[in-house]
């Protein structure tokens, strides 16, 4: 059996008394494209944020490519991970946020190649060449010199994707990547994600409210409710023949809303 690329083993995440992830067990295989759907507050974004180590967890272990992320081996024992250990494992993961998070004082090109975390081990010329190739890939080579304020939301999100790819991640996390966009810009961003999913080069975990897109691009869709994964399956099975009552209710509400 192949080793999962991402594994959550009884992960517990709480904000004070509010338990957001409740002993979550969840895996994503290497090269798999998995979407997480579910009602607001069910813990979808939290799954991505704890994996990015943007939030601490209170219990359990997360593994990336077989290595524990928040724990490490020391003298034959699993102990809390050091900052260096976390940085090394985390460098395999790139995240695209709902709100782009570009540096406003940097051009599109500089956003991709000016930060040391994006350019490790490359000369300036190599970093620039690669960033230009990535901007071209997301259809924005002609906007390389533009600042975020001179770009539409859809263009900013495509720069954010190019910037994430510049880190050479093996895993891509997308947190509702189109929900901050005007409707006419959604398609151009989905097209880029669709291409990345089709390329087979990445393990992708996508949190989305766009059921049609989740159904189209995913190898597997997971339904979260109340901090647990309550149903998962092939997209056509999960959407076409949902078993869990909460999932049935959720899907009929989403369909009603159009
Ligand atoms: N920093 C925080 N402090 C306190 N509570 C938080 C924090 N971040 C998230 N929560 C709470 O954790 C729960 C899960 O949040 P999360 O963002 O993971 O949900 P979600 O399923 O992604 O929801 P949505 O679809 O609305 O984005 C919610 O009840 C939320 O209010």
TrEMBL record:
Subcellular localization, as worded in the UniProt entry: Cell membrane
Please tell me whether the keyword Lipid metabolism is annotated for this protein: no
Keyword Transport present in the record's keywords: the answer is yes
The main location is: membrane
State the InterPro entries in the record.
AAA+_ATPase, ABC_ATPase_HisP-typ, ABC_transporter-like_ATP-bd, ABC_transporter-like_CS, Ectoine_EhuA, MetN_ABC_transporter-like, P-loop_NTPase
UniProt family annotation: Belongs to the ABC transporter superfamily.
Q: What is this protein called?
A: Glutamine transport ATP-binding protein GlnQ
Give the organism, scientific name.
Answer: Falsiruegeria litorea R37
